[in-house]
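User: I'm preparing a small set of examples for a lab meeting where we compare how different chains pack in three dimensions. I only have the primary sequence for this one, and I'd like the structure in token form so I can line it up with the others. Please keep the answer compact; I'll paste it straight into my notes.
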Amino acid sequence: MSLNAQFPKQVPFLPGHVFSDPYKENHHKTQQFSNINGTVQEKTNFIHEEFDPNLLDSMKMGTPPNLTYGSRQPPENDYIPRIQPPWLKYDRAVLRFYSYFQESVVENPNENYRIRQVNIYYYLSDGTIHVTEPRVQNSGIPQGLFIKRQKIPKKIGKQDFYTWEDLQLCSNINFYDRVYRICDCDTYTREFYEYMGKPLSLPEQLPRDNFQAQKETKDLKINPPDTKEYKEYFEVKLGGGHPNGGLNKYLSNDRKVLSFDIIWDDSSIEGQLNYYTLNYYLADDTCEVKEVRKQNSGKDPYPLMLRRQKIPKQPILTHYPGMTLKKEEFYSPLDLICGNQVRIYGRDCFIYNCDDFTKEYYLKILGIQQKPATLKQERGKKFYQPVPPYNGYGYEEDSLGSVYSLQPKPPKKDVRKNFTQDQFILRFESRLISEVREENSRRFIISFYCGDDTVQVYQTSERNSGIWGGKFQERSRQKNPLTNDYYSEKDFQLGAIVQFNVYKFQLMRADEFTINYMKQKPDVFKEADIKQIIAKLRMFADNYPNFDSFLLDLMKKLDKQFKGQIEFEELAAGLQELGFNLTLQEQYYLMREFDTNGEWKLNMQAFWEGIGGKRS
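Assistant: Understood. Below is the structure token output for the 616-residue chain.
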């Protein structure tokens, strides 16, 4: 029955009108899952399940079967593979071989073959190979990718592919009926083969073809031995000048200059040591001498001591220099050695050093090592310009700005200190120190501003005392006459004497904020640190046989009436009697530390325990 007999005559035999069974009327898809009486069921009419008769017999007899049928083989690799696959172990690992092949050349009388160099890359991850040819400019040959990356079979049509073991040095390999000669490889490839236990043989050189030899000898010309004489003869015959004998020397030594450092000791009345630079031009054996300028030397700048010319060893001085028949001998590089003297028209100059190029030239060309000579160090002239005295206008830094520069700049301020310390003001009660007895009773309030180190003084007055109170000194920076530096916060200690202009003040007391401020900064106010005060007091125990005898003597001299509490005057008198030189601020903080009741009295029991005594 033919194929056309299977289809009805009414349906044309065209694409889209052909069915596998033209007489089939039901084209619906089979439904496998259904819901019958609220139960999900599956139709298994079309599912063929194979059964094992041994399994059925074991189920009938009630004996459990061995469903595994043998022991399970242990896996070779886990989720962390113990044996790495090649795509993971040799990722980005490529072997590179340098090779070549011989290409025949036809219809060329100069060559009949050509050597073309290529690189073979073998990828260890998947065993693929690709071949490239390095590009050569103006070669006229399409170069670049030679064989795309792929697995190359050993024989066309076979499934036996090349591996890394097949690639050996000094061997031939066939890729698609083209024979390549492997001559060398890179360092990684050689190390890989040694690691795998198959070291490679020694490399061989790349052969040369006739094209390369012809290319190298193309521009090589060998003139006949008498060519130079012929050129000179024809040049003179045609009216040209005589050949320049120094042209070759000029071309080979152009811009090559030997530089030497020389010194001339001028022994005249107003003479001095003069430093020069001697430049020797190798192109024409001429020299020039330049003066080394120094700032503030008091001399007019004169660039050249001698213009560029040949320097004779013994100059011939005649009235007609061009008509003399005597020959002069000029200085050459062999005469210019460090440590020698050069006589330049009656001036004896000493060569003491040269530059690096000159040292290298003498060492390579003449075989002489230039050793610099040592000179006595000339004492530098010191110029002193006295600073004019302060005129009293503004700050001293403003006046110094016009001294140091013609265009004075405003002095820089410590902005960070001004922002961080501006809110801290140290206030002290002080008294005036004067030769007049009545003046010593005057009391002042000194305010020190930590933000900009300024000081302000107010005078206090009592009623009917005849003394006007108020501002005594404007806020300004003051200098310490002892150190000639501005006063800082570390200079303000209790008992210290400060001097503003012609007035001297002794700091007697401070407010509570100042006391706490100094206590919080023991690195600046060391006399306000109670630990350092106690350590200083304990150092006097070295004069006693033991520490207990020191404590007993200290307690007896301080508290003579055994009251248990002493006044500040008794503390100061007792320490003075013992010879313990504590400052007023140290005595003040010692009194403040062991004043337990707030009555400004030192508690002897607390003082005993504070300096290291045992509790009773």
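A couple of notes for your slides: The mean pLDDT is 83. The first strand starts at residue 33 and ends at 36.

User: Perfect, thanks.
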